[in-house]
């Protein structure tokens, strides 16, 4: 929506990784040097770690954009909690091979023939495993075993493992992964961008979609953006995208600290938990336990429960967790703020759509 208002040719802060928007920050430049070195070695494992949203997938995508796909065969596996055999089937499937088989020996034979065929055709095979922190030791050992396929002491496949910081701990402190550690030839941990890089990052992305200075970003706004995002690319993109949406709705040509504060408040409201009321134990006629829903009133008096002999007194419900009730009240208040904020946004969207429809109608009549 805001693209039209600002005359952009696209969305500059998309959340999906897009190598076209590659920005050469210091940490990404260093990571590219390690990746290029590892790739030139033609064997072993290359490991890239970073916090959620640090740009790991974008980094590898940028590297692969520089490769001649006539010379390389690429496959990507995004791991979940996979056992070793499941991971093997996913790898086989990622290379376009038939994975509908429970016989591990057949699957291994299938992928080995594929790797040998690519080698004979002069192509290198690269496997990218994303979310590697989710792999258990058995699955990681399966990857190491796949790296054993060789011809004349040349590896037939090279693997890139992308993961969150805990993957580094798993690799460093698991005795069972000693052989895998010995095959790691390059590793790098992506750090957030520094504050002085933020202006360049925002301008770089905006210029790629035709930005000519509108909207402008005041220095105080950049400071507020960095304070919220801490230099993490995905958090930056989420915030900046919402800032531009807000600016388009409000028809702003300048983004200041107040605008950023309003958008941050909206984002924090969006993140408010919306789970229903918790259930807490209450005595019943047989076992003395049973669920009742916590009430949302400020001063909660537990509802009595009828029994054959009469009514249970409130004192029998003294085991209710009042902290849970207080937390529930806070959540309900935040949910109300969330709903109110979205009602306001929807009304503004309806007004804008009405203006667009009137403009289109007027244009048609004029023709």
Short description:
By secondary structure, the chain is of the alpha/beta class.
Overall domain count: 3
The unreliable regions are 276-323
Level-2 CATH architecture of the largest domain: 3-Layer(aba) Sandwich
Helix content: 40-55%
Mean pLDDT over the residues: 80
Could you name the CATH class of the largest domain?
Alpha Beta
Distance between the termini: 25 Å
CATH H-level homologous superfamily name of the largest domain: P-loop containing nucleotide triphosphate hydrolases
Shape: elongated
Order of helices and strands: HHEHEHHEHEEEHHEHEHHEHEEEEH
Order of the strands making up the biggest sheet: 2-3-6-1-7
Seen as an oligomer or otherwise, the chain set is: single chain
Number of helices: 13
For the report, how would you describe the main beta sheet? Answer: 5 strands, parallel
CATH topology of the largest domain: Rossmann fold
**Structural class of the secondary elements?**
alpha/beta
In what range is the share of β-strand residues? 5-15%
Q: Find the count of extended strands (DSSP E, 2+ residues).
A: 13
């Amino acid at each position: 929506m805001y693209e039209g208002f600002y005359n952009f040719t696209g969305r500059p802060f998309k959340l999906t990784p897009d190598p076209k928007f590659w920005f050469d920050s210091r940490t990404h430049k260093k990571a590219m040097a390690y990746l290029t070195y590892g790739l030139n070695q033609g064997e072993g494992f290359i490991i890239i770690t970073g916090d959620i949203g640090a740009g790991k997938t974008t980094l590898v995508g940028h590297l692969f954009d520089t490769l001649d796909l006539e010379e390389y065969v690429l496959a990507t596996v995004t791991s979940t909690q996979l056992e070793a055999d499941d991971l093997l089937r996913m790898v086989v499937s990622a290379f376009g091979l038939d994975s509908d088989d429970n016989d591990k020996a057949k699957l291994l034979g299938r992928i080995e023939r594929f790797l040998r065929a690519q080698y004979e055709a002069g192509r290198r095979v690269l496997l990218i495993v994303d979310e590697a922190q989710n792999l258990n030791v058995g699955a990681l050992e399966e990857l190491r075993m796949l790296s054993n396929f060789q011809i004349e002491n040349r590896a037939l496949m090279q693997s890139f493992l992308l993961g969150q910081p805990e993957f580094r701990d798993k690799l460093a402190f698991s005795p069972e992964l000693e052989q895998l550690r010995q095959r790691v030839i390059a590793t790098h941990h992506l750090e957030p961008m520094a504050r002085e890089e933020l202006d360049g990052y925002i301008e770089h992305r905006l210029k790629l979609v035709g930005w000519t200075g509108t909207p402008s970003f005041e220095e105080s706004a950049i400071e507020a953006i960095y304070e919220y995002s801490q230099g993490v690319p995905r958090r930056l993109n989420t915030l900046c995208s919402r800032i531009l949406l807000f600016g388009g709705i409000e028809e702003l040509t300048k983004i200041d600290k107040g605008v950023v504060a309003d958008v941050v408040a909206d984002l924090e409201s969006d993140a408010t938990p919306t789970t229903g009321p918790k259930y807490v134990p209450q005595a019943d006629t047989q076992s003395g336990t049973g669920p009742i829903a916590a009430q949302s009133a400020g001063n909660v008096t537990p509802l009595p429960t009828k029994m054959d002999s009469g009514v249970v007194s409130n004192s029998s419900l003294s085991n209710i967790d009042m902290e849970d009730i207080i937390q529930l009240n806070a959540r309900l208040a935040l949910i109300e703020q969330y709903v109110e904020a979205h009602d306001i946004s929807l009304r503004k969207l309806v007004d804008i759509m009405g203006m667009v429809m009137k403009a289109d109608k007027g244009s048609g009549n004029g023709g």
